[in-house]
Write a structure and sequence with these properties.
heterodimer; A: mainly beta; OB fold (Dihydrolipoamide Acetyltransferase, E2P); five-stranded mixed beta barrel; two-stranded antiparallel sheet; B: alpha/beta; Peroxisomal Thiolase, Chain A, domain 1; two-stranded antiparallel ribbon; 35% helix; globular; binds zinc ion
């Protein structure tokens, strides 16, 4: 199975891909991979409950493959145009399974933000303080929650421009976050 | 409502001390049994046909699932009608209450015990904090470090930005609820005076929220007994009648939260609560509201119609939510003063309301002549709201 990878700059919410999602029954005969190393103390304790990026585990692996191209994507219903977040395998509005991958805007603005100074989950205790926020993505009906990097809490303001970037986690995998100010440090 | 429903009354209950307890999950359940059954000398375990247990995360926090039969055994019960656990994060206890109400009103049960319990303090608190992150959408929101404090901090930031609410007004909510808690022997925070000045000097947890703006990780349990109406006076001359209920769930992933400063789900649930009971916000004298954070109580005043939208900060500033005000909010001490053992909170609120409607709450907490009481719990990121309305006479 492959992710659809429309070429060119992501330019708002209208990118078109058109590959429907693989069906889980096609993968039923494959055995899940064995974890070969102990969990490391990265912030991914919460993500790596099981390896969700691997096509043997999930039907939305194209989202994570697109991150490797520096692209931020989600699914959209080919029938009613509904944007999904997180990426879906059936449309919550019409319950059809004919979905397409589309590019999301990579520039947004901070709708709200705060800073975690204590009470962080396992693996994140050493990272405090860190900033989190909700990012409005113009052109897409989405307001995404994300880690915010690039500027300390005290230097951020409502409406602050932020941009999508990816960052390495482990095993060659990537995840996403948003950066305020400066140039994006994708990969 | 469709079809005839039977009347349902709350006739008794008990609450364990809340706090960082030297007690395990099963021990908390037995303490609640001693206090709950102790309040009802006419009730024998064999009279109980159903058990509803509210517990949010026993699998992670106590490494125990299938907790309803565990609780039944610890309480000496052998339910023959309904036995179940409800999980609705911070509203797990209230969800158990409403499930018991539905069972009795429909005729499935005649007499039900509702137990709420949570053991939250662990040797490694980062482990407990991780359990709070998985209340949200774990792989998409929790993974970025989202737990309750930063989310409700953003609610406060937007409410301040849009309506001019101040940190001083947030502190006033905490000052009021801690003052009530100091008169509640089951509260987590005892003998500690929290003035607004002291509260505003406490460390910041997630700006603009300080330690005193946040409820705690708490161990505790509570037990309440609900009966079919015709049997209420076998147990007490002054039952509390459940006369209205509502719930609304509007989103889960934070991408769909919409406005942070307006809680549409609570507004809708409130309208349904008032419609189903034939009562309105002006009839409510006591409200047990979900003050997981100070800003929550302020938004709740507004969405429940106690004051106009945007004026919640002024409402607390004017003393309208204190004794002698328009509606006394959280005379138990709230989650801020009592602590917040997730599954126990809703059941403890109901036990408090029974005392308020019976006129037996301690001086300094009793709302004079209380006849109608509203109970609210939100859960998660205020994406679900659960409401009950209780009345002295029916
Ligand atoms: Zn659709």
């Amino acid at each position: 199975m492959t992710a659809s990878t429309p070429s060119g700059q992501s330019s708002g919410a209208g990118g078109d891909a058109g590959t429907t999602l693989p069906r889980s029954d096609a993968l039923a005969s494959e055995r899940p991979p064995r974890r070969e190393e102990p969990p490391d103390p990265s912030p991914l304790t919460l993500l790596d409950f099981y390896p969700p990026q691997d096509p043997r585990w999930t039907r939305i692996a194209p989202f994570f493959l697109a991150l490797k191209d520096g692209r931020f994507t989600t699914t959209r219903c080919t029938r009613d145009g509904t944007f999904h977040w997180p990426p879906a395998v059936a449309c919550p509005k019409c319950h059809r399974e004919e979905l397409q991958w589309v590019d999301l805007p990579t520039h947004g603005r901070l709708y709200a933000f705060s800073e975690v100074r204590g009470g962080a989950p396992l693996g994140m205790e050493g990272g405090v303080p860190f900033v989190v926020g909700l990012v409005d993505l113009p052109g897409a009906p989405l307001r995404l929650f994300s880690r915010i990097v690039g500027r300390p809490y005290a230097e951020l303001a409502l409406g602050e421009p932020v941009r999508f970037e990816t960052f390495p986690i482990r095993d060659g995998r990537l995840f996403y976050r948003f950066r305020a100010g400066g140039e994006p440090a994708t990969r | 409502m469709n079809g005839p429903l039977r009347r349902v009354a709350l006739v008794g209950g008990g609450i364990t001390p809340f706090g960082v307890r030297a007690a395990t999950f099963p021990e908390l359940i037995q303490e609640a049994g001693a206090r709950g059954f102790g309040s009802l000398p006419n009730l024998a375990p064999e009279d109980v046909d159903s058990l509803f247990v509210g517990a949010a995360q026993p699998e992670r926090l106590a490494f125990q699932s299938h907790v309803a039969p565990l609780a039944a055994e610890l309480l000496g019960l052998t339910p023959t009608r309904v036995i179940q656990r409800t999980e609705l994060a911070c509203a797990s206890g209230q969800s158990a209450l409403r499930s018991a109400y539905a069972a009795i009103a429909s005729g499935l049960s005649d007499l039900a015990v509702v137990l709420g319990v949570e053991k939250m303090n662990l040797p490694d608190m980062a482990e407990a904090n991780t359990s709070m992150a998985d209340v949200l959408d774990r792989p998409w929101d929790g993974v970025h470090g989202a737990t309750a404090p930063p989310f409700f901090a953003m609610v406060a930031q937007r409410h301040m930005h849009e309506y001019g609410t101040t940190e001083e007004q947030l502190a006033l909510v905490s000052e009021k609820n801690h003052r009530f808690a100091n008169r509640n022997p089951t509260a987590q925070f005892q003998g500690k005076v929290f003035t607004r000045e002291k509260l505003r000097g406490l460390p910041v947890v997630a700006p603009p929220l300080r330690l005193g703006d946040c409820s705690s990780m708490t161990d505790g349990a509570a037990l309440a007994v609900l009966v079919e109406g015709s049997r209420a006076r076998e147990f007490t001359d002054t039952p509390a009648w459940l006369v209205g209920s509502a719930q609304c769930s509007t989103f889960h992933n934070l991408a769909h939260a919409g406005s942070l400063s307006s809680w549409e789900g609570l507004r809708k649930a409130g309208q349904e609560l008032y419609r189903s009971s034939g009562l309105g916000p002006k009839d409510v004298q006591v409200a047990e509201l979900h003050d997981c954070f100070t800003i929550s109580e302020i938004v709740e005043y507004e969405e429940l119609g106690f004051c106009p939208k945007g004026e919640g900060g002024r409402f607390v500033e004017e003393g309208q939510s204190d004794l002698g005000g328009r509606v006394t909010v959280n005379p138990r001490g709230g989650l801020l003063g009592c602590g917040h053992p997730l599954g126990a909170t809703g059941v403890a609120q109901a036990v408090e309301i029974l005392g308020q409607l019976q006129g037996t709450a301690p001086s300094g907490r009793q709302v004079p002549g209380a006849a109608v009481a509203l109970q609210h719990n939100l859960s998660g990121s205020a994406n679900v709201h659960s409401l009950l309305l209780w009345r002295r006479e029916n």
